[in-house]
Amino acid sequence: MSERVVLAFSGGLDTSVAIPFLAEQMDAEVIAVAVDLGQGGEDMDVIQKRAIDCGAVESVVVDAKEEFAADFCVPALQANALYMDRYPLLSSLSRPLIVKHLVAAAKQFGGTTVSHGCTGKGNDQVRFEAGLAALAPELKVVAPARDYAWTRDKAIAFAEDKGLPIETTKKNPYSIDQNLWGRAIETGFLEDIWNGPTEDIFAYTSDPAQPREADEVVITFKEGVPVALDGRALSPFQIIDELNRRAGAQGVGRIDMVEDRLVGIKSREVYEAPGAIALITAHMELENVTVERDLARFKRGVDQRWSELVYDGLWFSPLKDALDTFIADAQKYVSGDIRMTLHGGRAVVTGRRSEESLYDFSLATYDTGDTFDQSLAKGFVQLWSLPSKIAAARDARHG
Fold first, then answer.
1. What residues are designated binding site for L-aspartate?
2. Mean pLDDT over residues 51-57, rounded?
3. Residue 153 a catalytic site member
4. CA within 20 to 30 Å of 160's CA: 37, 232, 247, 350, which one?
5. Last residue of a domain, one of 173, 192, 221
6. How many structural domains is the chain composed of?
7. Is the domain of 33 the same as that of 116?
8. Is 334 within 8 Å of 287 (Cβ atoms)?
């Protein structure tokens, strides 16, 4: 019996080429596993058929949209996860979920090897293989694009020679990864970091410079989880999906950055994540209202470390698990409504309300009704500044 290889299949160039290549190089039967993460675009039935047309012996499509939203996007939202304070981890979030379903398929179909289409330059190779090492260390891993030194032009030539049914051509050289949480575009003319992105590369967002009426939305959270839009109870998937459309129509969530990859190089990436950026902006503001100051300050450091761990492929790690526990506890009072205006490429908070609010109007106001005892402030300031005053005096003695 031939060895069985379970391939993470996207339907794009690299994974389509991988099917006949693995069959030839390893004398293997390839089982293609495509995971629907709410990415839109091509019909999943088309992708499933493409895998068979490329030579797979089995082609599996997993509907993981709701799972991805609830178990991966929501934790990222609660962590306000933005790598380098900008990137909302859209590709990073999807890989551990894909790994989970690759392992399940290997058990179902008797696979002994798992394969992915990542190159040796990217982060995703680490995310796939670190996840596999945690969940199924007995499985072997092969990455054709990395292990056999495939270049993109060689892959295109191989695909044309084999007559593979794929869309990527020399005239469309972009590498695109997309899911419910956002869309990433790289390679091609974007590799020259002086070149600005052209409007034709965007799919989730409209040109923010075009005139249009603003859109106002009220997002309701319960313990850090989005539960409603404009008073309509919805699942996390439905909320993200709707905000992708509404915020995307206003050009919200475009990001053009040079980021630090895990493998040590800098890479130019263009992202569009309208729903993610709108939700993170709203969640951060609700935390400002409901989370105590020192907890909020400490959580910002936890959020940053959580983002780095997920970016670096360590979703299934002890530290990530421990930080999840901290973040979940910090969310117990993050409930309420945030009103936002979506317009001109921005998601701007215009209102906040919460029964768990720590904002006290009578303490904050400068008008009649102020209950803040200002007579206490003078002594507080003197004691607060005393260590600095004493240190300054010492410094003065030493010139």
1. 119, 123-124
2. 93
3. no
4. 37
5. 173
6. 3
7. yes
8. yes
